[in-house]
């Protein structure tokens, strides 16, 4: 059962991903007590303007992360991966009893969190993607050994304010990142290329963008509304011996399945390099 009201939440490092989660939380109204930190006073002021958010800047308050962490039952770690160990050492003595620490940091393992925070602190590793800002994320969650079912449930409810959630073992987090984590970039690239094809056929910049972008938006909405398998929806658009069939044959002949496998394999190899500090 989804939790409709979340306990106090802190987001330490409200950058691109932390900020996306923050926007999802604010939009949902599920969390009435949110405190966030970032480096600059200007960014802090921007986030404070969201309403219902207490925003602290390290620039003016060097203890902002400690203050925020000590005020929350769910503490999201949104700083750059290289900064995570130092931040964990800073906040560890100030965490509330029973607080759940949630990692947004790619490549930082649950073992790293446990080694600094202690084996008894509940930790959940997450891998959301940027559509969180519009409530359409896919987030992978991997629970640490000390995280109870109730801990995972409350973290799941937090991320469900921003989209869909998949629970999985930590060993699959990097693989998930190559699909849903990096996936928006693949889609944007496809839109860019279809737009360029439209320009090449004489359409204006405005019309080319409208056709390409709205086609992707509409196709995704149709998929969502019908719940049909995408292969079935494709077949419905592809009349036998028609124009779409000819175009799809060219795309399939270009080994799209192999290209996506190769691309995601490359992303996975890089994720493993980053995990090793390379």
From TrEMBL:
GO cellular component, one term: cytoplasm
Described purpose of this protein according to its UniProt entry: Catalyzes the reduction of 1-pyrroline-5-carboxylate (PCA) to L-proline.
Ligand binding (NADP(+)): 12-17
Protein's cellular compartments: Cytoplasm
E.C. numbers: 1.5.1.2
Entry's Gene Ontology molecular function annotations: pyrroline-5-carboxylate reductase activity
Residues at which NADPH binds: 65
Pfam families for this protein: F420_oxidored, P5CR_dimer
Catalyzed chemical reaction(s): L-proline + NADP(+) = (S)-1-pyrroline-5-carboxylate + NADPH + 2 H(+); L-proline + NAD(+) = (S)-1-pyrroline-5-carboxylate + NADH + 2 H(+)
Biological process terms in GO annotation: L-proline biosynthetic process
Swiss-Prot/TrEMBL keywords: Amino-acid biosynthesis, Cytoplasm, NADP, Oxidoreductase, Proline biosynthesis
Annotated Pyrroline-5-carboxylate reductase catalytic N-terminal domain residues: 9-107
Protein name, UniProt field: Pyrroline-5-carboxylate reductase
Domain Pyrroline-5-carboxylate reductase dimerisation: 170-274
NCBIfam families named among the record's database cross-references: proC (TIGR00112)
InterPro entries (alphabetical): 6-PGluconate_DH-like_C_sf, NAD(P)-bd_dom_sf, P5C_Rdtase_cat_N, P5CR-like_CS, P5CR_dimer, Pyrroline-COOH_reductase
Family: Belongs to the pyrroline-5-carboxylate reductase family.
Pathway where it operates: Amino-acid biosynthesis; L-proline biosynthesis; L-proline from L-glutamate 5-semialdehyde: step 1/1
Major subcellular site: cytoplasm
